[in-house]
Amino acid sequence: MVSQASGGMNGDVTSPASEVNKMNNNGETQVLHNIYLRERFKDLHKSLESELSGLVEKKLQAFGEENLPVSGCLASSSSSNLSSFVSPFTASSFLTHAHSRRTDRKSGGHLPSRNFMARPSLLKELLTVNHMESIYNIFVAILVLLFFNKVLDEIIHTGSPNLDLSLIVWAFGGLDRVIVIWVCMFTTTSVFVYVAFHHWAHSRHAMPVVYDAVAGVVFLLYLGLFVYLPLQSLLHHFLPPASSLIILCEQVRMFMKTWAFVRSNLSRARSYKKDDDATQDEGQNNSTLCPNFSHYLYFLFAPTLVYRDEYPRNETCDWRKVINDLGQVIGCLFYTHFLFVRFCVPAFQKFGQESFNGTNLLVAVFSCMFPGSLVLLCGFFAILHAWLNAFAEMLRFADRMFYKDWWNSTSYARFYRTWNCVVHDWLYEYVYRDIVSWQRQQGGGCSKLRCFPMMVVFFISSVVHEYILSFAFRFFYPVLLIMFGGFGVAFMFVNSKARQFNIFLWVTLIFGTGIIMCLYSMEWYARINCPPTFDGFLDYAVPRSLNCEFSN
Fold this sequence. Notes:
This protein has 552 residues and is mainly α. It is 73% helix and 0% strand. It has helices at 2-10, 16-74, 82-86, 91-95, 97-106, 122-126, 130-158, 166-171, 175-203, 208-236, 241-270, 282-289, 293-301, 319-348, 358-394, 412-419, 421-442, 452-473, 479-492, 500-529, 537-541. It is globular, with a radius of gyration of 32 Å.
């Protein structure tokens, strides 16, 4: 029996020792599995925390870029960098942010500057979605219908499908003069400005006060001549509106580029000391005092108005994208032509020859809303999207944030900051920040005028817009100045986050473009059909449509 029991224990029946070992092995496996799950959970936690922190940092940076100028006027002015608000991503950073903001304000800190990074244009991403591509196709279909409408009109009136493009040919007349004026402007901007700044930067340390005073006078004199001489040539050769717009827009662009280059590199030369030659070789000294000419030349063509020595750049250039973007610019040009020929010319070409009253004006404004809105969208798409993306692709310029989703804006403050980021960045970088910095240096009551920098920005922007339109059309009719510098500033303080305000924004935009298109068209044809009421400068400054005697 003992042998049987012993055989049973060694055979079919498991011994207690083996059961204990098995339980220990299972327990060890479970412990190891728990440790593995815990490590996986830690890795997942770190990954999610990192992604969430990056997402919040990106959103807060975008929020700061969009709302910092206005928040200084509507609330308290903030000068701390957004990175101190985000990192480290803990509750204590949020609680201590107000203290760091006050400390930074007392220490004279500066507002955050423009940050360049590689990112695609917004519409390039949206048009990869089928739903957005269908909206794009709708606008293309409207262009096709306008084309056939023009062809049908020519067949009815002339008997042949002759596509009359005389309006475009006339509007872009004198292109040879335009090229000559542009070459002169670019030569002075690229060569004279760089050589003069290079000489000043390398020579001022001998007599800083004298060189700074002379350089300041020469620079202001140059800017004055740069505005006057192209304008005088434009008026002398009687260039038509489109050609005039090319010269005026390029003049303003080069003016802003010149200011950005000089303003961004002043601190290099002014912080230089003669003893620095002993610690730096000649190459390092030259690049420290003044950027290389290749950097400046690249900046003159780059689709940005904010100067940097280096920009994020792509590795290759896709010339098919360049051709596609330039083709879209040409398409928008014909789009605008068909809109004017179909809606604007027939409605106003007899202005001043027929009776016109308040009812006719109201009907004309509403009839101009649809074509005016399409012209606005065509101008945005052609210039801020297609044209800038074409140059960015050719130069391998990687930061394509030329605009943001302005169409989703729920306030005019956000609309102004997202409609044209290129100009907005220049105004913020070289006007708003400098004025705020000056206010903080003055201290006292001056630093409390938080709306003053924003008002200066609006004043400069509205005056430049009116300057371009006035000399392009050869008359002063401050409709845009009043709407942009008056109602536009007032709407800035309506800081609503409700989605319904987006409807209000679109209604006012459409109504405003209708008014602008109607009144400028009336004034244009009034100067063709109505005799002048005043002589000399008054005829240019006083709208002739207000004094036009209508025939019955």
